[in-house]
Amino acid sequence: xxxxxxxxxxxxxxxVQLLEATINALNSRLELTEAALNESRxxxxxxxxxxxxxxxxxILVPIGADSYIFAKVDSTEKVxxxxxxxxxxxxxxxxxxxxxxxxxxxxxxxxxxxEQQLIQASQRLGEARERLERLIRAREVGSPxxxx
Length: 148
Known about the structure:
Elements lengths: L2 H50 L5 E7 L2 E6 L5 E7 L2 E6 H50 L6
Antiparallel strand pairs: 1-2, 3-4
Helix pairs in contact: 1-2
């Protein structure tokens, strides 16, 4: 076993650990993006239901965790929507629907980019593991204990 082979093993082990951490981080970001997408889709459906309702109609409003409440529509013209940084503004139903739809499109783009990064990191991880296994097998075959 040479010093250069030890360095290569150490380098590959560090690369595998870094790629595993990267994959875990990407998976976490992907889960958060999926949650935001689901929430935005639910908001879009609720906004569309309000747009189609009439004042005084009873509708189901999602409150999270796959739960809903009954509510009476007071206005079908204006809603309060979040625009980021915990800021909410009153907007028309139409502009709110458009805004949420744009948010969904951005989140889908983010999701696709994260999925692509995850695929690339997973491929690199597989390649690094294969190189590490080959190097370890070669060391075992070349060692006195491996020649018995």
